[in-house]
Design a protein that fits this description.
Radius of gyration: 29 Å
CATH topology of the largest domain: Alpha-Beta Plaits
Oligomer: single chain
Strand content: 5-15%
CATH architecture of the largest domain: 2-Layer Sandwich
CATH class of the largest domain: Alpha Beta
Number of helices: 25
Number of domains: 4
Shape: globular
Length: about 550
C-alpha cells in the first residue's frame, strides 16, 4: 500500500478530491492534508508519503517551494502538481524540480485517479526489486521505449515543449541548450545484414565520450545522435570529435559498410525537426555518392559529401557549360544509368522518410542545366518510373495500384511538365512503393512472430528465458526483434512473457492445491515474493485471495 498526502488551499477542491476517490479500494493510505505548504511540511516529514499531491498557488508556501523541500529531503516521494494556471513558466519550474506529473484544473472526471494509479504502479514496481534474470531486460525495454518516444517527439515536434523536457529529464537527458544538431548513421554487413550486437554496443557507447551528444538506436533504420551546445563553435568541435570516433571504429571493422548524414545546425528544440530532415537528406546521398563516408547538409539545403578526406558536392552527371545552349547527347544520356542504379539500390533498403530527400538528391545530382533540356527531363522521368514499376512487379503487386493514388505518368507527361512537377510525382510514387515494400516485409515478419510466440509459450516456465534467447531462435538481433515484436503484438516481449506466466499461474491456483511458492517455480519465478507482488499487480489480488475467490464462486 502506498501513502498519499494532499495539499490544497481551496477547501471545496480538497474535500472533493478526498471524497471522490475510494482510497481503501485503490490500496492507497490517505495519510494527511493541509491548506498550504508551511502547514504541510512538518506533517510530510512525519508521515513520509509515497505520493505528494499539491496545488501550485497557495499562501505562505506555494507548491513549488514545497516540492523543492520534498525533493531534497524525501527524494523518493513522487510529486503530482495541480494548477489552475496554464502557463509554461510553472511547468518549466515543475520539470526542473523533477515532479512526476503536472495536471491543470479543473480536472476531467477520472483524470486525477488515472494519474495517481500510474504513479502508484510505478512505485510498486520499483519496490518489488525483482531478482529474475529478465528483470534487467524489462528495465532496458522501458528505457529504450522511452528514448524512442523522446526521439520521435523531437523530430516530429508533435508534443508541447514542457512534455518533451519532462520526457528527457526522466531519461536523464539534458536536452536544453542554445544550439542543436542531428546525425544519422546507417551500418550494414554482407547483403545488407543488420550490424552485429558487438558493433551496435560499441557505436552506442561512443557518444557517451562526447559532451552534449545523445545516442538513439533506431533498429533497422540505423542510428541517430542529437548534439547540444551553447555555441556554434562548441557544437562544431564536438560534432567533429564524434565523427572522428565513429569513423575510427568503423575503419577497424572490415565486415560492415557505413554512411553518416549530418544535418544543419538549429537554435530551437522545435527546429530539431528541420535538422532531422536535413540529416535525412544528407543520409540519402549514400545511394548517390557511395558508402563509407559522411555527408553534410548546409543551411541552404545543399548536401556536401566527403571524398577521400575532402568535402565536395556529389555530381552524377556532368554540368553543362553555361555559355553553350542547352542540348542533349541522347546516346550518352541513355548509356549513363547512374540514376537508375541509385534508385534500384534505394528501393531495396531506403526508408519512407528518406524518399523525398533522396529524390531531391537524384535531381540535384543531375545538374540544373541538364534538367533544362525537356527531352532529358522526360527521359529521366520515364527511366525512374519504369525502374519503380519493375520493382512493383517483383513485389507481386499490380502496376495500376499506385496509379490509383498518384495518377498515371502518361497524363502527367501529356503536357509540358516542369522539373518540380516531375520530381513531385516521382517522389509520391516512390513513397507509395516503399509502403508496398514494407507491407510485404510485415507479412514475412508474421512467420517470425509466430515462431517466437510458439517458443515463448513452450518455454515461459524456464527462469532463464530472455529476449536475447528468443531473438536468437528466430535469427534476429535482440534490438530488431524487440522493435518488431512490440509493433506487431501491441505489447513488449516482457509484457507478453509476464501475461503468459500469469495465465498459467491462475490455472494452477484454480485447479491444484500447490502452495503459492510452488506455483511461482512452476511458472518461471525464482522469488515467490516477487511472484506474489507481480500477481497482485496484474490480477488485483494476492494468489491466496484469488484462490479463495475461485473456491467461493466455484470457478
Amino acid at each position: 500500500m502506498v501513502k498519499l498526502f494532499l495539499v490544497e488551499d481551496e477547501i471545496v477542491m480538497r474535500d472533493g478530491i478526498k471524497s471522490q476517490i475510494n482510497w481503501e479500494k485503490e490500496d492507497i493510505e490517505f495519510v494527511g492534508e493541509a491548506s498550504d505548504g508551511e502547514l504541510a511540511w512538518p506533517m510530510i516529514l512525519e508521515t513520509k508519503p509515497d505520493i505528494l499531491l499539491t496545488d501550485i498557488k497557495m499562501p505562505f508556501m506555494d507548491g513549488l517551494e514545497l516540492s523543492a523541500l520534498v525533493r531534497k529531503e524525501l527524494p523518493d516521494t513522487a510529486i503530482i502538481i495541480l494548477s489552475g494556471y496554464d502557463e509554461f513558466v510553472y511547468a518549466q519550474q515543475a520539470v526542473s524540480l523533477g515532479v512526476t506529473d503536472y495536471l491543470l484544473k479543473p480536472l476531467p472526471p477520472g483524470k486525477l485517479l488515472e494519474c495517481i494509479r500510474r504513479v502508484q504502479e510505478k512505485i510498486e514496481m520499483e519496490r518489488s526489486q525483482p531478482d529474475s534474470a529478465w528483470s534487467d531486460e524489462l528495465a532496458r525495454e522501458q528505457k529504450d521505449a522511452g528514448k524512442n518516444l523522446l526521439f520521435r517527439a523531437l523530430v516530429t515536434n508533435d508534443r508541447p515543449l514542457g512534455e518533451i523536457l519532462a520526457m528527457a529529464d526522466h531519461l536523464g537527458i539534458h536536452i536544453s541548450a542554445r544550439f542543436y544538431s542531428v546525425m544519422l548513421m546507417m551500418v550494414h554487413g554482407v547483403e545488407n545484414a543488420m550490424p552485429s550486437e558487438e558493433l551496435r554496443g560499441d557505436l552506442a557507447s561512443i557518444p557517451e565520450q562526447v559532451d552534449g551528444w545523445f545516442f538513439f538506436d533506431r533498429n533497422e533504420n540505423g542510428f541517430a545522435m542529437i548534439g547540444t551546445a551553447n555555441s556554434i563553435e562548441e557544437l562544431s568541435a564536438t560534432q567533429k570529435q564524434l565523427l572522428d570516433l565513429l569513423k575510427e571504429r568503423m575503419q577497424a571493422d572490415h565486415s560492415h559498410h557505413w554512411f553518416i548524414g549530418v544535418g544543419k545546425t538549429v537554435n530551437r528544440i522545435s527546429d530539431i525537426e528541420k535538422a532531422y530532415y536535413s540529416a535525412n537528406k544528407a543520409l540519402s546521398w549514400r545511394f548517390l555518392a557511395g558508402l563509407d563516408r559522411a555527408a553534410f547538409a548546409d543551411d541552404m539545403g545543399k548536401v556536401v559529401v566527403e571524398t577521400s578526406g575532402m568535402q565536395e558536392t556529389g555530381v552524377a552527371f556532368p554540368v553543362q557549360d553555361p555559355e553553350v545552349p542547352v542540348q542533349l547527347d541522347v546516346s550518352g544520356a541513355v548509356s549513363d544509368d547512374n540514376s537508375r542504379k541509385m534508385l534500384e539500390s534505394f528501393l531495396k533498403t531506403g526508408t519512407y522518410e528518406e524518399a523525398e530527400p533522396f529524390m531531391e538528391g537524384v535531381f540535384d545530382s543531375v545538374g540544373e542545366r541538364n534538367l533544362g533540356s525537356y527531352l532529358f527531363l522526360t527521359y529521366l522521368s520515364m527511366d525512374l518510373y519504369f525502374s519503380m514499376v519493375r520493382f512493383l512487379k517483383e513485389l507481386g503487386r499490380r502496376v495500376d495500384e499506385i496509379d490509383e493514388t498518384c495518377g498515371n505518368i502518361n497524363t502527367l507527361l501529356k503536357n509540358r511538365v516542369t522539373v518540380d512537377e516531375a520530381r513531385d510525382y516521382l517522389t509520391r510514387y516512390l513513397k507509395e512503393l516503399i509502403l508496398k515494400r514494407d507491407h510485404n516485409a510485415e507479412k514475412r515478419y508474421g512467420k517470425i512472430l509466430r515462431d517466437a510466440v510458439s517458443y515463448i509459450d513452450d518455454n515461459f516456465a524456464r527462469d532463464d528465458i530472455s529476449l536475447n534467447r528468443v531473438a536468437q531462435t528466430v535469427g534476429m538481433s535482440p534490438n530488431h526483434f524487440s522493435s518488431i515484436f512490440s509493433q506487431e503484438m501491441g505489447e513488449t516481449f516482457i509484457e507478453y512473457l509476464i501475461n503468459r506466466r500469469m495465465e498459467r499461474a491462475r490455472e494452477l491456483l484454480r485447479t491444484t492445491q500447490m502452495r503459492s511458492s510452488e506455483v511461482a517455480y512452476q511458472v518461471g519465478y525464482r522469488d515467490p515474493h516477487y511472484f506474489s507482488s507481480t500477481f497482485k499487480k496484474i490480477q488485483g489480488m494476492t494468489p491466496r485471495e484469488y484462490r479463495m475467490s475461485c473456491q467461493e464462486t466455484g470457478k
